[in-house]
Amino acid sequence: MNIEIKDNNVVIDNNAVKVEVEERIVKKAEISRAIYLIPLVVGLITLIFLIGLFFIFLAIIFYFKAANAELIITNKHLIGKAGVVSSEQMQIPLNMINTVYYEKGIFGNMFGYGTIKITSQVEDCVFENVKDVEEFHRILLSEISKFDDSRMIKQANFISEALN
Which string of b and e fits 137-158 if b means at least 16 CB within 10 Å? Predict the structure, then answer.
């Protein structure tokens, strides 16, 4: 903004304002830029609040998803249930499981969880956020092996009895 005095006029950006003779500028006021800070701060607080609400909403969804999920190993089956609004269930005989593997990401390594993936003759399943996924993986493989061993022993006994 350009301000000057010419011929008893104060000229502000080429617009003249009439002033008294011998009048001079004593102080030129400047508009504080701090007035922009209030809406900016309020906007940022609101944004942070809304982002916070979004993450709280996500946490609630994850909580209910985890609270409604189950993955159970029995000596004969792998049983799973998942779903918040609608529920999916599966029951796979251990002898029908083809492969079992797990993955852990950066956060999974830090917080001790991972994703377990199971392929079978019945269906393929993925369970995310399984706590102590390595232990679950190890126990599932062990139970599959025990189940196969017991089936072989039963078959051997049946054949032995049939031959006698």
Answer: beebeebbeebeeeeeeeeeee
State how far the Cα of 99 lies from the Cα of 93, in Å rounded to an integer: 13
Residue type, 68: N
Separation in Å, CA 31 to CA 3, 16, 95, 102: 15, 20, 80, 63
Q: What is the DSSP letter of 75?
A: S
Tell me, yes or no, if the pTM score tops 0.70: no
pLDDT tens for residues 59-95? Answer: 888 888 887 888 899 998 998 888 777 778 888 999 9
Q: How far apart are CA 99 and CA 119, in angstroms?
A: 5
Instruction: Enumerate domains of the chain plus CATH numbers.
Output: 3-65 (no CATH), 70-163 (2.30.29.30)
Nearest to 75 by CA among 121, 149, 143: 143
Q: Would you tell me how many other CB atoms lie within 10 Å of the CB of residue 68?
A: 13
For 146-163, the pLDDT digits (tens) are 988 888 888 888 888 888
Spatial separation of the C-alpha atoms in residues 23 and 48, rounded to whole Å: 51
